[in-house]
Write a structure and sequence with these properties.
This protein is of the alpha+beta class and about 200 residues long. It has 7 helices and 10 strands. The strands form 3 sheets. A 5-stranded antiparallel sheet has the order 2-3-6-5-4. The chain has a 3-stranded mixed sheet with strand order 8-9-10. It is elongated. About 30% of the residues are buried.
């Protein structure tokens, strides 16, 4: 479905672990389900709100999820001049992304169908699906609280390659502490053999 106009207000602005990124909390949901992420002006093409944000010339990442918009600039110093224009753009140009039907029932995932104790016996494709679902429930909500997200790029031979989005994308902590935390959670709950790396460049 096409994005729909809806009145949004920024009710709070929060810092994130990445000093170049701020999280703008909204008065209502901005997206029906999932998230929208833009990492450059080319990805923003065709989306009026994202195009407007990247037209500032110093926006390096944009993440829209649940009730917040995370905006990352080229440097933290840029916020002194841009925080008010960014808030104005959100309140005047943001649209509601009705890209999925909402339902009151919790959707079943692969986690409801498999025995996690048998994780090491699964094929790589099933392991990747299990990890993705596990991240949905246990890791992505934590990153979202700081205005970020993580995608699985590849899983093979117990090596998980991930790509950060939003505030996590250019955060130095994501290169070390956050990466090790994700690896620790997966090793403890799924398999001690899993190692996690950050995917760099295009696939």
């Amino acid at each position: 479905m096409e994005a729909q106009k809806k009145k949004f207000m920024v009710v709070a602005t929060e810092p994130t672990p990445n000093p170049a990124a701020l999280k703008f909390n909204l008065n209502t949901k901005a997206i029906a389900q999932g998230m929208r992420s833009f990492n450059n002006e080319f990805e923003a093409e065709g989306d009026p709100f994202a195009e407007t944000m990247f037209s500032f010339g110093v926006v390096s990442a944009l993440l829209i999820q649940d009730r917040f918009v995370s905006v990352t600039l080229d440097s933290a110093e840029e916020w002194e001049l841009l925080i008010d224009p960014v808030i104005q753009t959100i309140e005047e140009s943001l649209v509601y992304y009705d890209n999925a039907e909402e339902t009151g029932e919790k959707k079943k995932t692969i986690l409801d169908e498999v025995d996690l104790e048998q994780f090491d016996t699964f094929s790589d494709s099933i392991k990747a699906e299990v990890i993705d679902a596990y991240m949905d429930e246990n890791i992505r909500p934590l990153l979202a609280a700081d205005g970020g997200n993580v995608l699985i790029e590849e899983f093979a031979d117990n090596v998980l390659r991930i790509r950060y989005q939003g505030a996590c994308g250019s955060c130095s902590k994501a290169e070390s502490g956050t990466l090790m935390a994700i690896q620790s959670i997966l090793q403890k709950n799924l398999s001690s053999e899993i190692s996690v790396l950050i995917q760099r460049g295009d696939i």
